[in-house]
Amino acid sequence: MKSTPKINKTWLMAGVAAVVVLGGAGLYAMIRSPSEAPAVQGEAGHSEAEGEHAEGEEVGGEEGVIFLTAAQITAANIAIVPVTGGGGGETRLSGRVEPMIDARAVVAASVGGRVERMLVAPGQSVRAGQPLAILVSGDAASLRADADAAEANAIAAEQAHSREESLADQGVVARRDAEVAHAQALSAQAAARAARARASAAGSPNASGRLSVTSPISGVVTSVQVGPGGFAAQGGVIAEVTNPARVEIVFNAPPALAAQVRAGSAVSVQGPAGEFDAVVTGVAAGAGAESGATVIRARPTGGVLPPAGSAVSGSIVTGEAIGGFTVPSEAVQTVEGANVVFVRTAEGFRVAPVLVGRQAGGRTEILSGLTGAERIAGANAFLLKAELAKGEAEHGH
Question: The CzcB-like C-terminal circularly permuted SH3-like domain covers which part of the protein (predicted)?
């Protein structure tokens, strides 16, 4: 690679970079830094003299270095991205947007009973724990009565144990009688806990057998299966609730891909509204019930997924190289016939020659030239390449 041209320390990059699109044609404007901006009227003579001095003088220029402040980088919309591990080939997949496993709840009656009131209707938003219906159940009343009776027995057994302990301390009864009373109190307490648990599982009914059927998730009521006055059998469906925000991408992949994709792998997804990035959250080999295909689940790294049922396609990097690195493809620029990236420094950027490998999913494999700890220019890195070319042309004068 040829040596990178020297860049004057007073770099011509502005604090502001603007892209104006008019009638299909792009117009790029770069404003010079304040140190090189034309002087105000009345100081033209000084400005020309200073400009001639600056043009004819090399003020400590460093090879392959571009000086920029953080404010100038932000104004030019130059993204700073890390170098990530990986590398490999590209595999195209097809899939759909589907509800997550916890995004849909079929709410059933835990005990049989009459529907006294329905508190929701289809299309209504509900939160987790919100009542959907009120049931009146004889079975639930029995469970509550059993819990109350068991609690009373536990209290009585504990009181009997206290009396036996007191009498044993006074020598009136044998110590064995106090120990028997203690065991009976422990047994009564265990029976009371079991009765309370059964009543709680039934919906914590009151003494009249009334209980609320609640939603286990937040979402939207999609259907109601019963109405006031109807009877809900034990296990019968009361309503269905779906959370439309809890969706994910599910790809069906060849079985061999299960060994090449892991959780955390990057996926470039093309949906109805355009392209977006996603990350693999799970890989299940042979999960396809009929075909035995590998199921790959993914979620977007930003933005909102299309509605459930939308068809999507994905591009995933497979066969990743251990110890390799990848960068966004737009970060790699060609300078004097060689591939380079612009590494962020305290003063701005420096040019780093790199050896590139394969490209997949909008990323380029870096075989050498980086350690992996660098932060580089990603989006709009071409602006830095353009400034390098401008600096070389002015240096030639």
Answer: 326-385
Pick from 154, 157, 143, 159: nearest CA to 191: 154
- CATH for 6-86+323-396, options being 2.40.110.10, 2.40.420.20, 3.40.50.2000, 1.10.760.10: 2.40.420.20
Q: What is the pLDDT of residue 20?
A: 30
Other CB atoms closer than 10 Å to residue 296's CB: what's the count?
26
Write out pLDDT tens, residues 285-328.
Answer: 876 555 667 889 998 887 778 888 889 988 886 655 555 688 88
Cα 161 to chain center, whole Å? 57
pLDDT tens profile 12-35: 333 333 333 323 333 233 333 333
Q: How far is CA 249 from CA 125, 264, 371, in A?
A: 24, 14, 33
Domain 89-102+244-318: assigned CATH number: 2.40.30.170
Virtual CA dihedral for 233, 234, 235, 239, nearest 10 degrees?
A: 50
Task: Please determine, for residue 359, whether its predicted confidence score (pLDDT) is greater than 50.
Answer: yes
